[in-house]
Amino acid sequence: MFKKSKVTDQTANGQEGIKIKSKVPGVMITQFQKELPEGKTTPDFTRKPIALTIQEGKHAVFKAKIVGTPTPTIPKVEPEDADTYKCFATNEYGRAICTVVLNVIEVGFNKQKELQKTNEDVEEPTLFRKMLKKCNADGTREEKPLEPEEKAWEILLSADKKDYEHICNEYNITDFRGMLKRLKQMKKEKEEEVAQFISHIRTLKPVEVRDDDCATIELDMDLKDPKSKIFLYKDGVMVPFSEEDLEQKHSLKQVGKKYVFTINNLSSKDGGLYSVDVGGVNVFSTDFKVPEVDFAVKIQEVKAQEREDALFQCVLTAPLNEIKWFGKKTPLSNDEKHEIIVSEDKLIHKLIVKDCQPLDAGIYAAVSGIKSCNTWLVVEADKDAGNDKTKAARKTTVAGSCNDEDLLRIAKEQQELYDIKMKEQLEAAKKAQAEREVAEAAARAEAEAAAKAAAEAKAAAKAAAKAAAKSKKGSSSKKAAASKKAGASAADGAGSAADAGGAGAAGGAGAAGGAAGAGGAGGAGGAGAAGGAGGAGGAGAAGGAGAAGGADAAVDLEGEEDEESFEDSDEEIEKDEGLAKKRVRAQGRGAICLPPQAWVRVHPGYISGHTSRSHTTILSSKPDRPCIPSVADKSPDPGVHFHAGLSDCKAIIGEPAEIECKLSSEDCEGIWYKDGDEVLKSTEDMTISKEGSIHKLKIHKVTGEFAGKYRFEADGRKTEGEIIVEDPPRFDAEELKAFPPTVTVKKGQKATYKLSYIGEEPVKVQWYLDGEELSDGTNIKIETTDGCSRLLLNKLQRKDSGEIKFKLKNVYGTIEALSQLVVLDKPTPPMGPLEIVEAASSAIEIKWRPPKDSGGCKIDHYTLDRQQVGRNTWKKLGSIGAEAKYRDTDVDHGRKYCYRIRVETEMGVSELMETEDVQAGTKAYPGPPAAPKVVSAFKDCINLAWAPPSNTGGTNILGYNIEKRKKGSNLWGPVNPPDAMIRAKTYGAKDVVEGIEYEFRVAAINDSGAGEFSSPSDFVFARDPKKPPGKIIDLKVTDSTYTTLSLSWTKPKEIEGVEDEAKGYFVEIRPSENPEWDRCNANAIIMNTFTVKGMKSMAMYWVRVIATNDGGEGEPQELDNYILAMPPPVRPRFTDAKIKSFMVVRAGNSARININFEASPWPDVTWLKDGVPVSKRATVSNSDGTSQLLIPSSERSDTGIYTIVVKNVVGQETFSIEIRVTDEPKPPGPVEIDENVPGTVTISWTPSPDEKRDDRLHYIVSKRDSNKTWHTVADRIFNNKFTACNIMPGREYQFRVFAKNDMGSSKPSESPKWSISSKKERFTVNVPDSKACNLERPPKFIVPLKMHTAPQGYECYMTCAVRGDPTPHVTWLRDNISLNTNTNYYISNTCGVCSLLILRVGAKDTGEYKVTAENGLGRAECSTKLTVRD
After folding, report:
1. N or C terminus of the chain with fewer C-beta within 10 Å?
2. DSSP 3-state assignment of 1236?
3. So what's the pLDDT on residue 1422?
4. Please, which residues have CB within 8 angstroms of residue 191's CB and are 6 or more apart in sequence?
5. CA 649 to CA 653: how far, in whole Å?
6. Non-local CB neighbours of 432 within 8 Å, separated by 6+ positions
7. Helix 476-500, helix 503-516: angle, nearest 10
8. Cβ(743)–Cβ(771) under 8 Å?
């Protein structure tokens, strides 16, 4: 039962109050007894009741899951019932208590209560609680679409302050300050509601559209109860979502405390208000608007060079201020790396990726609304950069740019289509407005007719009153009193009708007054009639009021228009007493009663006594408020609207700026406002112009005073945009033009750079040399003053050459100026190694490499000195020009010379390079040429070609010699005569024999003679060219896996003169989606089998094999059908030889089942428990040919039959394993003994508490008598009784009973000792007569001799067994010769076991061995053979 917490229930007399802790927080349990009987527990809650907040007069239902008690309910409650309640769950062993809060909201206007409150400000009703959706018992909302007002407040509760203005404009909310005040109260109440389920909320991200055709809603919150239910609604209707399959339409992914809702496969129907509820409380709402826009031109793939800019551009079907750009899944914005450009018509959008690097390559995407497109950016490395450490220069070209005229043409076509669409929508709106006006006119006509009828009734009432007055003058005073009373009654009736808000009620009251005949009453009656007519016709109360009383109604709005930002704090709003007041004065009695602080939006219009053009929207109400005249509800004429509104503009100081908007009509004029003040006309600095339907405001030279918000109004419509004045750093144009692109100085001198700049401070000034920032130092000095910076570099060295960059940066941007610094110095020495072009007896020609660094100057010439080896003097050869080579003709044959070489430029002479010794006229033989190649072969000629040697020996190559050798021979023979060298590098060897295989080698000849021979060529037959082979035969697949394919074939047939023998084979494959063949082996294989590797699993391939020989490749042979990369189909089967079909697991331990199987293709593996899929508690892991089922911590409920189903296209296989989760049983209860039959006792016991939970539990009974030894008398007893037999009188017995299951035995339960007294009788023994037994028998071998094979030198042991009575005489014989007396053999006979031992076996011991046994009753023999091996 439920009780108020004010009531305290005491523990009953005789009960103990032991407080114990519940698993559920907030639940208190009182235990009445110290020790509970076996299997008994105190009450507890598995789910507590939650706090309720309900309206007055509703039913309150608290729900809780408890043990043994029903869920209590509270019938109709009143405000005074709001309190804290307790829920008691009681049984005979204890009581559980938990508390719950009930809050009751007062609803409606109570006149009696209001009269009791004097001089008190009435607290506003809780607006948010009124708007709460009714929730079902499980926390879900009622399935009902949201009203516009509810939708507006739900959006505002989760929106940022910067979005308040456009939300209010969208939902026609004009009382901004009133809205902020109420919104603050609603947020406070919402926080209290949310705090019941969520401890902290950190991140709430609205709907974001991603580049993979999906949108996400992201929340980061800490749930107090992780099991709290989360619901997703769209426009008030619940949306089902999946937490497992993230590919469904709606899904939820939780990572820690982060919750991400995903909407996949976006379409226009996905727009709406999305709300996230936790436990029936709204946590977050976001409005997802889907604009009707698509891509007319999508972004295309761009290939850019390194350090080049890349351009992506697209065209939309409708104007948008901005679209989202993504680079490699990351949102992009305007920064130093990326620039986003939007055309004036908002249709062409561009993204520029500046200074592309290889890391910038990847997929880039553009997202517009719910539409997206993506493509690749490919960045190619700069091949001209070389290996030097200097950074490649920035390129000025832009990759991806196309013809802008085409884009403009497409954008113009889309703009025209958009204008036509907007025009059609405007026409439809005008048509709907006209239909509404016709309906309103008809309603007004009905109202006027009703007013006219009321006026006639009034006139008739007056005439009747006058006639009555004349006829009854004598009783005038009495009737006057009666008239007065009737008039007062009529006025009261009209007032009551007005208070109730019903025009019809007012009319009824007026009619009653008119019947009374008083003038005042008649007025009231007229009003009432008009009100009734207005109510009937729907024309509005104001029309009725004007017709009845002839009074004029007007609306007066006092106060200022609220132009303040929503960013203001709530405290400022509360302190501000200048709230906008709206008052309505009425000069007639026809009125409706508006609630206090009602939000009234009055559209401009003409109001008179009979017609009204005003439109009033009431957004919230409160009961006590004076009455104001009613006004007609009429929607405004849409009139002129904006095709393109103002957009924010960023302008730089000193440069022009322009903002413009486009109206739907060219005849409409408008007014410009800046920060709320009207801009009257054009000035010298600003021009206001109109070009057709386009209105422009242009600023010729922007200054800081032009920054602000600009608004354009026309025909009641307005649009706003902001001019943001920026002052980025800029260089003086003249100074920048004079800034030197290259500065050249000599080593040790100084260089100076200076530039002036302008821009908003602070400006960060940085100087760089080759990308490294410079700072003040010994030789570096940077001077920066207001608007100027100077860099001075002293004592420059050659290494200081590079790019000088002057960089300025402030909050608005960055600018750079570049210059090249060149420091001149002496060149470095020439570089080796020295190349000897010629070393003849009459001349030496040498070459070398130019210096690594020429010092920044052009090389004028080289200077050479020469020394003859052996002398100490150097001879000056002088200048030789700028070419790095020299031919010295003044040499003596056989002498060696050394040279010193220097480089000379305008900066001086370099250090010298000294060469190695060069000898003139030595025997320098050329090196070997390259191995000759066979160009073609015929039966009488083989054509060869070769490359000259890299080492010519210092002289020119004069010719070549060729030699040949037959295959298998060691002798080389000349091809050309020794005196007829070959001048060319090709030759046709004709001295060949048809059918013989040859190889060739070549030697080069110079002035010194012939050099070494080259490596031999490949062997070639002297025969005419061969014909290509034919197609292979019998191509087939021998084996396949998921990544390999094995093929075999038969070589093609040889047809003389048509198809020659195949010498090798090529295997080619082609994926089904690719038209090109890929060759699997680079070199031809000679085997008739091949294994293709590296195939994609389950991919489809075409395969072919091509035979080849010296004559070329033959025609390919393909397989008839495509091949799937998979093993041959195999029906699933289990590979384990022995699989346990039964498993016992102790409760709390893990249960693991491993099943090995084979199947092809890869099968689907499913685990079932008792015929249904296993629960999430079980973890299934599948790998190649293995499946594992793991239960980490088993419970008794996990007991069951687990079945694995392995299924593929070929078939399926199943296997079942029974898992029994149990524990050691508890012992049975007390054991009792009863004797029903003499000599037997019946043992009975109380069942073990685990008997009901374990169907395999049984009992074991053990007995102990006077000898004190326990032994089992019964096992596997499945009932609770056992009858023991052979109970002897005079002995003492005791029994034990064990409970046993698959896990083991319990502790025993022992019976009391039990005995039967016995009577002693005389014991007599009768001994029977004994008979003699004859045991005599003849000999018989019961164990015969065995065959023996013994190595020579080893011992041999023979044995047999014989029986007989009397004991027989045993004789051993070899080849029928007795061995009993031979000392070389050891013979024994023990109890019938006869043995013979030979200590060292020799060749003489080979033969037949026999044993004879004989006694008086007979004779027996047994024989064997002994074989002796070496």
Report:
1. C
2. coil
3. 93
4. none
5. 13
6. none
7. 180
8. no
Whether the CB-CB separation of 340 and 322 falls below 8 Å is answered with yes
CA distances from 1021 to 243, 931, 932, 1238 (A): 75, 17, 15, 117
CA-to-CA separations, 423 to 409, 571, 643, 665, 774, in angstroms, rounded: 21, 46, 10, 11, 62
Enter the tokens of residue 1386: 């050891």
Q: What angle do CA 171, 177, 178 make, to 5 degrees?
A: 75
Half-sphere exposure of 97 (CA within 13 A, CB side): 18
Q: How big is the chain, counted in residues?
A: 1430
pLDDT of residue 1: 38
Q: How confident is the model at residue 1172 (pLDDT cuts 50, 70, 90)?
A: very high
Burial class (CB in 10 A: 0-12, 13-18, 19+), 1321: exposed
Q: Does 974 have pLDDT greater than 90?
A: yes
> Which residues have C-beta within 8 Å of that of residue 59, sequence separation ≥ 6?
73, 74, 75, 76, 77
How many whole angstroms separate alpha carbon 929 and alpha carbon 935? 17
For 275-292, b/e burial (b = at least 16 CB within 10 A) is: bbbbbbbbbbbbbbebee
- With a CB cutoff of 8 Å and minimum separation 6, the contacts of 861 are 879, 880, 881, 882, 904
- pLDDT for the residue numbered 1259: 92
Residue range 983-996, pLDDT digits in tens: 999 999 998 998 89
Query: Which helix or strand (DSSP H or E) is residue 644 part of?
Result: strand 642-644
1310: CB partners within 8 A, 6+ apart: 1231, 1294, 1295, 1296
Find residue 1277's DSSP bridge partners. 1259
Q: CA separation (Å) from 305 to 269, 314, 389, 394, 402?
A: 43, 22, 19, 10, 17
User: Cis (ω within 30 of 0) for the bond into 851?
Assistant: no
Residues paired with 832 in a beta bridge? none
Please report, for residues 122, 146, 849, 1197, the alpha-carbon distance to residue 113 in angstroms, rounded to integers and kept in the order given: 11, 33, 111, 61
Question: Which single residue is written with the structure tokens 């039990």?
Answer: 1314
* 185, 188, 192, 198: CA torsion to nearest 10: 140
Cβ contact 822:853 at 8 Å: no
Cβ atoms of 1021 and 1063 within 8 Å: the answer is no
CA distances from 162 to 154, 165, 166, 273, 566 (A): 16, 7, 9, 19, 6
pLDDT tens-place string over residues 909-924: 999 999 988 888 766 7
**∠ CA 40-46-48, rounded to 5°:** 130
3 state DSSP class of 987: strand
- φ and ψ at residue 606, rounded to 5 degrees: -95, 130
Task: Classify 1102 as helix, strand or coil.
Answer: strand
- Helix (H) or strand (E) run with residue 420 in it: helix 404-471
* 1219-1235: pLDDT as tens digits: 988 888 889 999 888 88
Beta-bridged to residue 1233, according to DSSP, are 1243
User: What is the tens place of the pLDDT at every residue in 7-27?
Assistant: 344 444 444 567 777 777 778
Residues 6+ apart with CB under 8 A from 1307: 1227, 1298
Is the pLDDT at 1304 greater than 60? The verdict is yes
pLDDT-derived band at 623 (thresholds 50, 70, 90) equals very low
Closest CA to 369 of 300, 295, 425: 295
- Rounded CA gap, 1420 and 1412, in Å? 6
What's the average model confidence in pLDDT over 420-437? 87
Q: Choose between 677 and 518: higher pLDDT.
A: 677
Amino acid (1-letter code) at residue 380: E
Residue type, 848: W
Contact call for residues 141 and 134 (beta carbons, < 8 A) = yes
SS (H, E, C) 95-120: EEEEEEEEEEECCCCCHHHHHHCCCC
